[in-house]
C-alpha cells in the first residue's frame, strides 16, 4: 500500500511539474522583433539632430534606441574622408549590436559619402539596405556658391571628378537593396532628376522642400517600409 501511495505521489508531482512548465511557457512574453541597426548620415550644413523626428518615428514603430545611430561629421571635408569615418562608425555599430549588417539612411550630401563607402571601401559586405533621401547623387548646380570654400561642395558640383568616378560603372553595386526618394521641387538638388540612381527603387515623393525631406512623415513611412 505504501509503495502504491508513493507511485501515486510521484505521478501527481510529475503532472504538476508539467502543468507549471506549460503555464510558465505560455505566460512568457513574446520576444520583441529585432531589426538591422540603422545608421543615419546627414548632409551639408547639418548634424545628427536632423534625424530626431525620424528616430522618434522609428522608436514609435518598434525600434529600440540601441538600433538607431545618428552621427555627426565635419561636412566641409572631402566626402572621401567622411566615407572612411563612416566605415569606422559602422564597424563600431556592428560590434555594439552583434548584427552582421546595418541599413544606411542618408540625406542630401550624405548619400555621396555613403555611396563612396559602399563602392570603394567594402561597404556592400556590411550594408543590407541603402536609402538616399534628397541625395545629390549626380550633382547640383547650386553647389557653386560654396565650392570655393569647402571641398565637399566642390565634389557636389555637376561633372566634378569625384562624381564622375563615383557614378562610373554600376551606381548600385553589390547585393545591397537601394532606394532613392526625391522631390520634384527640390531647390537644392538642381536638376531634381540628379537624385535618381540607376538600379535603385526611385520614388518621387512629391513637392517637398529639401530640408523637409528627412523629417516628413509620409516619406518616413515609405523608407520604413522599404527597409523592413
TrEMBL record:
Q: Would you indicate the residue range of the signal peptide?
A: 1-27
Q: Which UniProt keywords apply?
A: Signal
Q: Does the keyword Chloroplast apply?
A: no
This protein is called what?
Triacylglycerol lipase
Amino acid at each position: 500500500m505504501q509503495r502504491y501511495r508513493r507511485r501515486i505521489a510521484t505521478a501527481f508531482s510529475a503532472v504538476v511539474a508539467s502543468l507549471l512548465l506549460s503555464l510558465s511557457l505560455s505566460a512568457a512574453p513574446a520576444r520583441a522583433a529585432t531589426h538591422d541597426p540603422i545608421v543615419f548620415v546627414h548632409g551639408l550644413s547639418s548634424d545628427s539632430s536632423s534625424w530626431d523626428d525620424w528616430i522618434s518615428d522609428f522608436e514609435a514603430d518598434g525600434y529600440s534606441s540601441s538600433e538607431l545611430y545618428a552621427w555627426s561629421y565635419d561636412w566641409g571635408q572631402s566626402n572621401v574622408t567622411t566615407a572612411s569615418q563612416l566605415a569606422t562608425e559602422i564597424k563600431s555599430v556592428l560590434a555594439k549590436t552583434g548584427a552582421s549588417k546595418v541599413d544606411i539612411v542618408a540625406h542630401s550630401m550624405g548619400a555621396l559619402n555613403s555611396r563612396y563607402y559602399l563602392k570603394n571601401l567594402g561597404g556592400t559586405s556590411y550594408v543590407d539596405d541603402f536609402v538616399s533621401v534628397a541625395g545629390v547623387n549626380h550633382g547640383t548646380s547650386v553647389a557653386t556658391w560654396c565650392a570655393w570654400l569647402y571641398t565637399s561642395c566642390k565634389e557636389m558640383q555637376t561633372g566634378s571628378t569625384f562624381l564622375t568616378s563615383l557614378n562610373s560603372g554600376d551606381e548600385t553595386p553589390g547585393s545591397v537593396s537601394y532606394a532613392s526618394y526625391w522631390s520634384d521641387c527640390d531647390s537644392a538638388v538642381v536638376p531634381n532628376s540628379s537624385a535618381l540612381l540607376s538600379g535603385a527603387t526611385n520614388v518621387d515623393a512629391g513637392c517637398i522642400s529639401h530640408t523637409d525631406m528627412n523629417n516628413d512623415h509620409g516619406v518616413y513611412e515609405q523608407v520604413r517600409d522599404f527597409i523592413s
